[in-house]
Amino acid sequence: MRTTIGIDVAAPPELVFQLARDPVRWPSLLPHYWRAQPVAHEGESVVCEFVALRALVPVLGIGIPVAWRSRTWAEPDQRRLRFRHLGGATAGMDVTWRIEPAGDGCRVTIEHDFRPRVAVWARFVDRGFTRPIASRTLRTFKSLAETLADGSASDRLPPQ
Known about the structure:
Layout: E1 2-9, H1 13-20, H2 26-29, E2 33-42, E3 45-57, E4 62-75, E5 80-85, E6 94-102, E7 105-113, H3 119-149
Antiparallel strand pairs: 1-7, 2-3, 3-4, 4-5, 5-6, 6-7
Helix pairs in contact: 1-3
């Protein structure tokens, strides 16, 4: 099953890429990411253990923690981020972020390609976990990038 979600961002693609390119920093930028712990380095990639909150009752902060392990790497020349899920419920999932110029800003898309042996599992994972977490990630990066692009928050981001 291949799914794509996207969002338009009123900020330069280079800015969005710089914000998103290092998933180890995501817990300091994204409130729903609780952990991105590096466990191994493989050349230009890093294997991380992630924990993010899948909101159930957002206004109360109630949700389900979701954990996964992924090999991640950046492709700066194409402004792409890549993730390959290793083991567990999402083993084999390939994720590609694309950050492309669009008008005065950019378009950010996330493609999930997940082909487990039982097809219904892919739909359950997409609707129940992947799509809600990725959508919140896109909305948060959009807000951060647009705030930075208008110059009102550059002093509030954690250092790289």
